[in-house]
Amino acid sequence: MSSNAITVPELQVQEKPWVDTLHGWVTTVDHKRLGILYILSSLFFLVIGGVEAIIIRIQLIHSHNDFVSPQVFNRMFTMHGTTMIFFVAMPILFGFANYLVPLMIGARDMAFPRLNAFSFWLSFLGGLLLYFSFLGGSGLYGAGNAPDVGWWAYAPLGARAFSPGHSSDYWTLALLVSGFGSIGTGINIIATVLCMRCPGMKLGRMPLLVWLNLVMAGMVLIAITPLSAAQIMLLVDRYLGGHFFDTQAGGSAVLWMHFFWIFGHPEVYVLVIPAFAFLSEIIPVFSRKPIFGYPVMVAATVAIGLVSTSVWAHHMFTVGMNSYANSFFAITTMAVGIPTGIKIFNWIGTMWGGRIQFKVPMLFCIGFLFQFLIAGLTGIMQAAVPFDWQLSLSYFVVAHFHYVIVGGILFALFGAFYYWYPKMTGRMLSERLGKWHFWLFLIGFHLTFDVMHIPGLLGMPRRIYTYEPGRGWDTLNLVITIGAFIQAIAILLFVANLIISYFKGAEAGNDPWDAWTLEWSTSSPPPAYNFATVPMVESRRPLWDLKHPEDPDSLYE
Amino acid sequence: MQQVILELHSRGHLVQTWGMEVQRVKITCRTALCSVVFLFFCLSSAAAVTSLTSPTNIFVPESTPAKSIVNLSIFVLTITGIIFAIVFTLLVYSIAKFRAKSENANSEPAQVYGSAQIELAWTIIPTLIVVVLVLATARVIHAIQDAPKPASAVEVTVIAHQFWWEYRYPQLGVATANELHIPVSDPVHPTPTLLRLLSADTDHSFWIPQLAGKTDLVPNHPNSMWMDPERTGIFLGQCAQYCGTQHAKMLLRVSVDSPHDFAEWIREQRQPAVVDERVAAGKRVFESTACINCHTINGTVASGRFGPDLTHLMSRTTIAAGAALNTSENLRLWIQDPEAIKPGSLMPAMQLNKSDLDALVGYLETLR
């Protein structure tokens, strides 16, 4: 399937039989092809995770609905969360990082091309393992198939007493395997950025996208390792008689929570920092101005990276920590809002005084700015610990983090698709379909996730397969479900745009947006070696210098 | 600079179509904006109506911890609201003011790289806001979490099970399930209720939005919380931490009683089970089947702890942790086919014949 939908730069490859083309893609170590593989596999899982979300929303359309059983519902939200975080969001961002980082620093590939291929296939295999649970999860116990422990699998739900059969083993192994893939990618990005830059590309001249992915890669190493350790401990509990999390033998449920969230919160920033990276490239180009406060943007990102490693227990305010611990994590959590706010201000500063072109990539970035502002402010509300004692574990939280992940990260990703698709395929995505996609998705998103805050304030907990009438939740849930369908239609338009434009889109040329970073200096799609001659740069915007020899950036930096 | 290998592409065709596209965007913007605003209006009115009547609205507090949370939340909402208004205005202004116009589409705007003063300003101001928010938050954390326990406090041990609630009153010698009774607290002579939170199996969370924030019940990790309801009545809530298949139907029902009613309720709950010779057959069924493995009825041989205490079953309004009303049809259905009421609950179908079932339900209905 994918072999047809992918651009093949060299002419002679197209004449090969499809088996050879497929073989070429499976055995590739080219960072661009691996990037595209990451993106395609993520889109595949995005559609599956989306179908799960729709099943969840149909079940919740009114009180006491019985569209699916509680068992199926619990599997759906577990699989939805796990899929979207581990097999959509992370790999799709890795895909863009893989594709763009070497091009932007003027390198010919990643530092470790084979490790790169290995990481991709591990992460893809992880996704397949997770979904194999639908077939293999029952084990000999007939205990039901896919995992139903929630995407954070709080102990002791994951213990054998409460999760017999193999469903949560598939969950554990899927995360472990894809986690090793993520660590490989993290190491690779760091090595690439530190060692593969072209002449003149000092750290202070790297495009912000590269800087932000460097920070992201460092955070992957910090975040994924405790998760992998916890998964191994859980396997020891389940099969080798360990008692780390086995509460019936004196193990600690709270220990698992700490392990999980020491992973889980930096993970949020692992996802959102690449989204920041897209904005930091797209907003300047469509405002026709350089990024405002480049050094501050870098410093704010590093600050977010550092502070975000000490905020994890804000996921645990209801777990019963003492008042000092609660206050500490309130301080760190609110503090992480400062560098995040600085970033938003700098993006506004970039637009300020510019000449903003409302092309589809920019529309999605502007959507991001509004939505991420709201997501940040609802985050501050939850950092006010006593307020969180009401909000935590309710639909308010679900609305909040979907605001971050859909309203923020997914919007930025859509922007990135519209912006870099021409580079990846040589064809423009349709602006017209893109605008339909944007507006439909925006309306669906706000219908669903604005409204979703309210049932949380009215006492509706998350992860319930049905609810009681008379609590004021029915109308709201109906509206939320309608919004979900509008979003689904918008996603279908997007996929249609990807496919149609691949065949019928306008020719992109090398530099359709009149942009300034190195990837636009080579052909679209770039040749396997990226650059015929290794470029040399003298400023943060090498193409600006070239286009404006009378007024180069290098004079001001 | 000349060494850079660059193959630049003409952008002529982009400039040509630019004016048309701006026009189209404007129209699409306006239609979309109007429909969004209209929808919001409908929704917010619907939401306002429903939230007024919701028994689980966090903004209608009836107890000190819930009230101090609302006060803090209004403070936080005000500050975040102001931040939102300012940043939102800046965003809208810059988008509206600095849109590209056809007359200058060919030239580039002034290239501004940043400003140390501005950066400093928008670092310091948010920092000050954070300091204020942190102080306000820490104060309320301390006030709720470290509140001294008055001697007049009623202590209840809450033990969460998959998927029901066990309540024990150690000072009063009472054990019951699913429906909690606590006394109303007079502000002059407060009688707060202190809940000790334990779990028998997985993680759960105790949440009555109008009385207090939620606190988890974690195995091997005892927690506590308190509430001092200011009015009598029924308060609703439910388990908030995912605990397994029937997390959704692990409902909470708290009856806040006047001091007199509470004393009366305690007196009744301390009685052993009613003995009624007319239902001896049903009692025999109960005592000779698996019922006694899980359920306790004081004064009989039944002393199981795995399921709810049934000594005063008929004093409760609901069965199956609030999943169904306590009527004889529901009792019968619950014994015969629990999956029909609460699929995935740990109550087994008892496979009784009709006469045994009749007798058993008859017996249970005497347990007042």
How would you portray this structure in words?
- The complex is a heterodimer of chains A (557) and B (368).
- With 557 residues, chain A is mostly helical.
- Helices cover 66% and strands 0% of the residues of chain A.
- In chain A, helix 8 (253-287) runs antiparallel to helix 11, helix 9 runs antiparallel to helix 10 and helix 11 (360-383) runs parallel beside helix 14 (431-457).
- The radius of gyration of chain A is 23 Å and the shape is globular.
- The N and C termini of chain A lie far apart (48 Å).
- Mean pLDDT of chain A is 93; it is low at 1-5.
- Chain B has 368 residues and is α+β, with helices and mostly antiparallel strands.
- Chain B has a domain at 277-364: Immunoglobulin-like, CATH 2.60.40.
- Helix content of chain B is 42%, strand content 16%.
- Chain B has 9 helices and 12 strands.
- In chain B, strand 6 (204-206) and strand 7 form a beta hairpin.
- In chain B, helix 2 packs antiparallel against helix 3 and helix 7 (328-336) packs across helix 9.
- The longest helix of chain B has 42 residues, at 12-53.
- The N and C termini of chain B lie far apart (93 Å).
- Mean pLDDT of chain B is 89; it is low at 1-19.
- The interface between A and B is large, with 135 and 118 residues.
Structural descriptors:
heterodimer, A: 557 residues, mainly alpha, Cytochrome C Oxidase, Chain A, 16 helices, B: alpha+beta, Immunoglobulin-like, 42% helix, disordered N terminus
Order of helices and strands of chain B: HHHEEEEEEEEEEHHHEEHHH
Q: Return the structural class of chain A.
A: mainly alpha
DSSP summary: helix tally of chain B: 9
Strand order of the largest sheet of chain B: 3-2-1-5-8
Helix residue percentage of chain A:
55-70%
* Beta fraction of chain B: 15-25%
Extract low-pLDDT stretches of chain A. Answer: 1-5
Name the CATH homologous superfamily of chain A. Answer: Cytochrome c oxidase-like, subunit I domain
Main beta-sheet annotation of chain B: 5 strands, mixed
Helix content of chain B: 40-55%
The number of helical segments of chain A is 16
Q: How many whole angstroms does the radius of gyration of chain A measure?
A: 23 Å
* Computed structural class of chain B: alpha+beta
- Give the oligomeric state: heterodimer
CATH topology of chain A: Cytochrome C Oxidase, Chain A
Dominant shape of chain A: globular
SSE ordering of chain A: HHHHHHHHHHHHHHHH
Termini gap of chain B: 93 Å
Radius of gyration of chain B: 31 Å
In whole angstroms, the N-to-C terminal distance of chain A is 48 Å
Mean pLDDT across residues of chain B? 89
